[in-house]
Amino acid sequence: MERPITRFETDGEGDPLAILSCGHPQHVRHNPPFINRSWVTTKQGRHSMLGKTLNCVRCDKFELPDSFVAYKRTPVFTEESLPGALRKDHSTKVGVWAKIIVAEGKLRYRVPALQADMELSQDTIGIVVPEVLHNVEPLGAMRFFVEFYKAPEKQDA
Question: The whole model's pTM is what?
């Protein structure tokens, strides 16, 4: 899935990391002759790449970024109280991930763009990828809630 670069950091060895809008880091090394990314060697070069997209395979695999933290959750929904908007395609905002947690019963979770159609239960949590359209459908009596995740707040040093 293509994701825009929002900023750059470095890893423990000093190699450049592009931070994507989804929150995933991705190495962007300049390592000729295998990889020619001379733009990573200067601040101006990296700045020129802000907003450009890279393919994020971790989003394709529904991987919640490791450092993200829960910050809110919905009430518990049942097959009767499930809002109509959740039954239709909808998405989260930039950088907002979520977990669909089923407490009882089963729930169908569809993500058309990623060709995913999953049956969620107490044993199977659904991961919501930022900005990607998805919908849910109750499979009989069920109870579930959604827990939202974002990047942790930066602490001033």
Answer: 0.87
CB–CB of 86/136 below 8 Å? yes
Domain range for residue 134?
Answer: 69-150
E strand or H helix that includes residue 29: none
Q: How many domains does the chain have?
A: 2
Same domain, 93 and 48: no
Q: Which of 99, 145, 147, 148 is nearest to 125 (CA)?
A: 99
Q: Are residues 44 and 108 in the same domain?
A: no
Rounded-to-integer distance, Cα 65 and Cα 63, Å: 6
Contact by Cβ (8 Å): 55, 1:
yes
Both tokens of residue 34? 């295998």
Question: CA torsion 57→60→62→63, rounded to 10°?
Answer: 0
* Mean pLDDT of the chain, nearest integer: 93
Query: For tokens 């908007």, what's the residue?
Result: 85
